UniProtKB/TrEMBL annotation:
<dbReference type="InterPro" id="IPR015932">
    <property type="entry name" value="Aconitase_dom2"/>
</dbReference>
<dbReference type="InterPro" id="IPR015931">
    <property type="entry name" value="Acnase/IPM_dHydase_lsu_aba_1/3"/>
</dbReference>
<keyword id="KW-0479">Metal-binding</keyword>
<dbReference type="GO" id="GO:0003697">
    <property type="term" value="F:single-stranded DNA binding"/>
</dbReference>
<protein>
    <recommendedName>
        <fullName>Aconitate hydratase, mitochondrial</fullName>
        <ecNumber>4.2.1.-</ecNumber>
    </recommendedName>
</protein>
<keyword id="KW-0816">Tricarboxylic acid cycle</keyword>
<dbReference type="GO" id="GO:0046872">
    <property type="term" value="F:metal ion binding"/>
</dbReference>
<dbReference type="InterPro" id="IPR050926">
    <property type="entry name" value="Aconitase/IPM_isomerase"/>
</dbReference>
<dbReference type="GO" id="GO:0003729">
    <property type="term" value="F:mRNA binding"/>
</dbReference>
<comment type="similarity">
    <text>Belongs to the aconitase/IPM isomerase family.</text>
</comment>
<dbReference type="GO" id="GO:0042645">
    <property type="term" value="C:mitochondrial nucleoid"/>
</dbReference>
<keyword id="KW-0408">Iron</keyword>
<feature type="domain" description="Aconitase/3-isopropylmalate dehydratase large subunit alpha/beta/alpha">
    <location>
        <begin position="40"/>
        <end position="477"/>
    </location>
</feature>
<keyword id="KW-0456">Lyase</keyword>
<dbReference type="InterPro" id="IPR001030">
    <property type="entry name" value="Acoase/IPM_deHydtase_lsu_aba"/>
</dbReference>
<keyword id="KW-0496">Mitochondrion</keyword>
<keyword id="KW-0004">4Fe-4S</keyword>
Length: 752
């Protein structure tokens, strides 16, 4: 149990720390005096301070030390730029960056990849050089999708990792807690700050029985989504248990954990079992499974009698395939009911495109099962009636199915093999078969099917199903087709039924790694130059923010008094702005453009206090910034709810905000503001929000004595009439006050 075992085959500096995990768990158990679930063991095994940490599920905030960080290309840009601005020589924990989101599917694999490399050259060059400089692993475009690469190379039982992508939980299929976060959290871990997470509740899902025929792991999560809805997992970890968990593959468990994101779960996890051992061995990591076996009882399983906050039971023997959608992944219809439901709802019945693969469902098993169906159809002289695409999750999966023949089966069947990347799953799909506004149906084995997600067409009815059902529906070309009961006609008009799929969990000849697409950080990194063109409109190096001037601010104008709901989308819109995620100056042009000005009830129209002229919110902020004038924002309830987008905090800081004063904050946004050196403050008397005129000037009294739990005061100076004061609360602790004084959390880290 004392051996030093590497976390993976690619890094020689990262080791598995089971001993420390178990010591932490023992400390926590002696304090809590109760059995722990498996998910709790992983969390508490990674506590920063197991002696002093308060632990109450659903209540306390845990300070954790994750084992590693994974970032995809779209979110990595700002995370790395921020990390760089701290001036630290290298990342504190193992980090990998994966190029998968920026590759658009158009003509198929190689051509699309070449085009994407051309189009995104500056971003890929930046990521390649910055990862090399700061000691991170870099997976080049074409290597595959982040979650598949993590499963194949980095995931191991009992680990805690964070990833800047919502489907990071995929790695729960190998018995680890993998949690999707925003860039700001990734920067914390990269720079050795503990990472904070509200102690999740634990939703136990008990699996009994065994699946057969057309049912596959995807159907477990499709059914669960129907039970819990898209919000049912919020603030919870889904922990699977029961005999049923030992009846299918680790990659199947990965699919289920991946789509836990669709019910809003913090993450999902399966306990360590034999399927994981098999997968670890097949991916050349037998040493890890031997090490894990030594810790099976005290770490890698739930304690006897561990209690869940709630339990849902699913009998796998009775489970039938599901088709979920359209427009939401929790609208679950068992395949036997689809005929009726589809007609009743007037959903387009022609299946225009069937899409398999993605990070959710592109294991060797998924591919061999789908290929067995395609082969069966081909033996009756049929091809896919719908368009059919395959997005391999990784170069390894692609090369292995190319070697073993499934890829050819798909191509003969009429399939188009896309690049090893996200492609149509994230809307990177130059779809040609329909026009925008055409009402149509597509079925995929992906995870999300919100309006417009796949092809940007709000009239596309997108359904999610297993790769098996997707393939069967592509053969029939009809949403009502049920392969378990319905017949097809072969090329001569004779009726036949498709055989249930047969697949192989792991490749009998082992995996073929394919092309080497990994770039390890060099040992000598000081000479590496990070490539950011000064003329780029997509990337911009960040300057550290100024430190606090040590004074109470006076006469600050109110940039905007926001009315009603102000989410992170109102604060920093997505859509076309995604392009500028690595360019703070450019993306700041979207600051608060979606928020409603309480004064004139308009979006993106505020009055400049000094000139009296109306202009856009970012333009007015820039005008203030130009004259060296700091400003504040006034807002309502749950300000900053939505995503963990750090840009929503970076932008006001960049544009010269001093404080954001609201009735209440969404917690993540509040923390993000603190991290960027801003003052998030709340009205002690929320009704005073109403008394504030957008053209009042404000003083903040007591900033010089900022201390935990001590109120500040807001002095309002109306253009006419008496000045008045109202108390303000804050939630700064001692450490966070240091962030404010230093100008940002990163500045503070750099000082250290
Ligand atoms: Fe990519 Fe879609 Fe997965 S965007 S990471 S393939 S959910």
């Amino acid at each position: 149990r004392d051996s030093k075992v590497h976390q993976n085959l690619l890094e020689d500096h990262s080791f598995i720390n089971y001993k420390q995990n178990v010591e932490n768990i023992e400390i926590v158990k002696s304090r809590l005096n109760r059995p722990l679930t498996y998910a709790e063991k992983i969390l508490y095994g990674h506590l920063d301070n197991p002696h002093a940490q308060e632990i109450e599920r659903g209540v306390s905030y845990l300070k954790l030390r994750p084992d590693r960080v994974a970032c995809q290309d779209a979110t990595a840009q700002m995370a790395i730029l921020q990390f760089m601005s701290a001036g630290l020589p290298q990342v504190a924990k193992p980090v990998t960056v994966h190029c998968d989101h920026l590759i658009q599917a158009q003509l198929g694999g190689d051509k699309d990849l070449k085009r994407a490399i051309d189009l995104n050259k500056e971003v890929f060059d930046f990521l390649a050089t910055a990862t090399a400089k700061y000691n991170m692993g870099f997976w080049k475009p074409g290597s595959g999708i982040i979650h598949q690469i993590v499963l194949e190379n980095y995931a191991f039982p009992g680990a805690l990792i964070i990833g800047t992508d919502s489907h990071t939980p995929n790695a729960g299929g190998l018995g680890q807690l993998a949690i999707g976060v925003g860039g700001a959290d990734a920067v914390d871990v990269m720079s050795d700050l503990p990472w904070e997470l509200k102690a999740p509740k634990i939703l136990g899902v008990k699996l009994t029985g065994k699946m057969s025929g057309w049912t596959s792991p995807k159907d477990i999560i499709l059914k669960l989504a129907g039970i819990t809805t898209v919000k049912g997992g919020t603030g919870k970890i889904v922990e699977y248990f029961g005999d049923g968990v030992n009846t299918f593959s680790a990659t199947g468990m990965g699919t289920i954990c991946n789509m836990g994101a669709e019910i809003g779960a913090t993450t999902s996890v399966f306990p360590y079992n034999n399927s994981m051992v098999d997968y670890l061995k097949a991916t050349k990591r037998g040493e890890i499974s031997e090490f894990a076996n030594l810790y099976h009882k005290d770490f890698l399983s739930a304690d006897e009698g561990a209690e869940y906050d709630e339990v849902i039971e699913i009998n796998l023997s009775e489970l039938e395939p599901y088709i979920n959608g359209p427009f939401t992944p929790d609208l679950a219809t068992p395949i036997s009911a689809m005929k009726e439901v589809a007609v009743k709802n007037n959903w387009p019945l022609d299946v225009r495109v069937g899409l398999i693969g993605s990070c959710t469902n592109s294991s060797y098993e998924d591919m061999t099962r789908a290929a067995s169906i395609a082969e069966d159809a081909a033996s009756h002289g049929l091809k896919a009636k719908s368009l059919f695409t395959i997005s391999p999750g990784s170069e390894q999966v692609r090369a292995t199915i190319a070697r073993d023949g499934q890829l050819k089966t798909f191509q003969d069947f009429g399939g188009v093999v896309m690049a090893n990347a996200c492609g149509p799953c994230i809307g990177q799909w130059d779809r040609q078969d329909i026009k925008k506004g055409d009402k149509n149906t597509i079925v995929s084995s992906f995870n999300r099917n919100f309006t417009s997600r796949n092809d940007g067409n709000p009239d596309t009815h997108s359904f999610v199903a297993s790769p098996d059902i997707t393939t069967a529906l592509a053969i029939a070309g009809d949403l009502r087709f049920n392969p378990m009961t319905d017949k097809l006609k072969d090329k001569d008009g004779n009726e036949f039924m498709l055989k249930p799929p047969t697949g192989v969990g792991l490749p009998p000849k082992g995996y073929d790694a394919g092309e080497n697409t990994y770039q390890a950080p060099p040992l000598e990194r000081s000479a590496v130059e990070v490539k950011v063109s000064p003329t780029s409109d997509r990337l911009q190096l960040l300057e550290p923010f100024d430190s606090w001037d040590g004074k109470d601010p006076t006469d600050l104008p109110i940039l905007i008094k926001a009315l009603g709901k102000t989410t992170t989308d109102h604060i920093s819109m997505a859509g076309p702005w995604l392009k500028y995620r690595g360019h703070l100056e450019n993306i700041s042009n979207n600051y608060m453009i979606g928020a409603i000005n309480a004064e004139n009830k308009k979006a993106n129209s505020v009055k400049n206090f000094y000139t009296g002229e109306y202009a856009g919110v970012p333009d007015t902020a820039r005008a203030y910034k130009k004259q060296g004038q700091k400003w504040v924002v006034i807002g309502g309830e749950n300000f900053g709810e939505g995503s963990s987008r750090e840009h929503a905090a970076l932008e006001p800081r960049y544009l010269g905000a001093y404080a954001i004063i609201v009735k209440s904050f969404a917690r993540i946004h509040e923390t993000n503001l603190k991290k960027q050196g801003l003052l998030p403050l709340t009205f002690a008397k929320p009704e005073d929000y109403e008394r504030i005129n957008p053209d009042d000037l404000v003083d903040l009294v007591g900033v010089t004595e900022l201390a935990p739990g001590k109120q500040l005061s807001l002095r309002l100076k109306p253009k006419s009439g008496e000045a008045w004061e109202t108390p303000l609360n804050h939630t700064f602790n001692k450490e966070q006050i240091e962030w404010f004084k230093a100008g940002s959390a990163l500045n503070k880290m750099a000082e250290k």
